[in-house]
Amino acid sequence: SSSEADEMAAALDAELNDFI
Amino acid sequence: THIHSDVQLTEEAVRRYLIRKPMTTKDLLKKFQTKRTGLSSEQTVNVLAQILKRLNPERKNVNDKMHFYLTE
């Protein structure tokens, strides 16, 4: 579903923001 | 056991996409949908995060969205 895709993108963005 | 997948989430696959054009995390997730790779959502996020950290791609904002890209 698109909401699952949104959640995954948010989780991935959060992981990568920690890395910056 | 054999896990059916017609798409593999690998560093090389991600590298090829990012060389072709800048992509957001959402664009990349669309390329590696769980139903294609056989991975769970959590695995997909974790593996993609590790790959992006290793590749350390360039970043730029397009239409207010962060895009990753690589040059050859």
What's this entry about, in short?
With 20 residues, chain A is mainly alpha-helical.
Can you walk me through this structure?
The complex is a heterodimer of chains A (20) and B (72). By secondary structure, chain A is mainly α. Helix content of chain A is 90%, strand content 0%. Chain A has one helix at 2-19. Chain A is rod-shaped, with a radius of gyration of 9 Å. In chain A, 10% of the residues are buried. The model of chain A has no long low-confidence stretch (mean pLDDT 84). The longest helix of chain B has 15 residues, at 41-55. Chain B is globular. Chain B has a two-stranded antiparallel ribbon. Helix content of chain B is 50%, strand content 14%. By secondary structure, chain B is an alpha+beta fold. Chain B has helices at residues 11-20, 25-31, 34-37, 41-55; strands at residues 58-62, 65-69. The chains are: A mainly alpha (20), B alpha+beta (72). At the A-B interface, helix 1 of A face helix 2 and helix 4 of B.
Q: Any descriptors?
A:
heterodimer; A: 20 residues; mainly alpha; 90% helix; rod-shaped; B: 72 residues; alpha+beta; two-stranded antiparallel ribbon; 4 helices; 2 strands
Fold blueprint:
The complex is a heterodimer of chains A (20) and B (72).
Chain A: H1 2-19
Chain B: H1 11-20, H2 25-31, H3 34-37, H4 41-55, E1 58-62, E2 65-69
Antiparallel strand pairs in B: 1-2
- According to DSSP, the number of beta strands of chain B is 2
Structural class of chain B: alpha+beta
Percent helix range of chain A: over 70%
Kindly, what is the distance between the CA atoms of the first and last residues of chain A, rounded to a whole number of angstroms?
A: 29 Å
What is the string of helix and strand elements of chain A?
Answer: H
Global morphology of chain B: globular
